Fold:
Amino acid sequence: MGFPLRPLQLLCERRKSIIESVPKFLTSLETSPAAAASPSSFETGHITTLRIIEPPSQPVTESPTTLVVNNAPSPPQPPKPHHSYRLFPDWQTSYLWYDASSQHAAADGQVHVDEDDISSRYPALHDYYFAWQEIYESAFEKQGCHLGARAEVFPDAHERAAWEVEGCLIACWLALREDVERVEYRPEEKAYLIKGDGVRDVLEGFLKDVDMGLGE
Structure:
């Protein structure tokens, strides 16, 4: 069946300045045998490319003639941090949290990722991320939810779907960073656990859930 395009089309209609070519990207994934091993791009207004790259099915090996033998010991490399994140909306927060298994959370007990940390750690994501966050903040306050109103944040189901899809793409982008082990994305009740080698499968399952929720 492949990727359902309706949720992505809703996103493109509502966020034209952010994402221009998601359907084209997904079509290339379904039709090109080599697509899983090559970078494909979401063209964005704030980020030049938002790539989802699947690893090749076969390991890449180098010719013996290209190997260089160096007997000198390599200097020890400091271990890279491996963050585990949780991404979900919570009014007047950054929406990004450390999972309990994250090195950062284990080191100092901090679970909320400050906005300054997001900006400095992922500068290419800054405008894209906080524009997405602001959509929810504005809708939350417009519905009076910050005053205790029990109203839907997004009365329009299509608007909610577009916002949730954009959040999932952010979670996928984060999951593919070298310093990230995994991202749990929870736009509502159901959580989606995203890891670098399983981005495509989780994204496909998420889009199917959104499409089913929209009905006919």
About this structure: Residues 157-175 form the longest helix (19 residues).
